[in-house]
Specification:
The chain is built from no helices and six strands. By secondary structure, it is mainly β. The strands form two sheets. Strands 1-3-5 form a three-stranded parallel beta sheet, with no helix packed on it. It has a three-stranded parallel beta sheet with strand order 2-4-6, with no helix packed on it.
């Protein structure tokens, strides 16, 4: 089971893949310093997150309300 996903500074572009929502045991998601776009609804169910870094991308929209249930974030 994947607990940490660090893809910062990888020149990634486009929207977040929907499969990220299936990584429900992630405690660390670091995607900063890429060119990712769109909304971040895919991370709404990642309730085990403790570290979330999304800065320096081109995301739009709102923070998903379900992310408030990630008690360790």
């Amino acid at each position: 089971m994947l607990e940490k996903l660090r893809l910062d500074n990888n020149m990634l572009s486009g929207p977040l893949p929907s499969m990220i929502s299936q990584l429900t045991m992630l405690v660390e998601l670091v995607l900063n310093d890429n060119a990712l776009t769109g909304d971040i609804q895919e991370i709404e169910n990642l309730l085990e997150l403790q570290i979330l870094e999304l800065q320096n991308n081109m995301f739009s929209g709102f923070i998903p309300p379900g992310l408030g249930n990630a008690l360790n974030l």
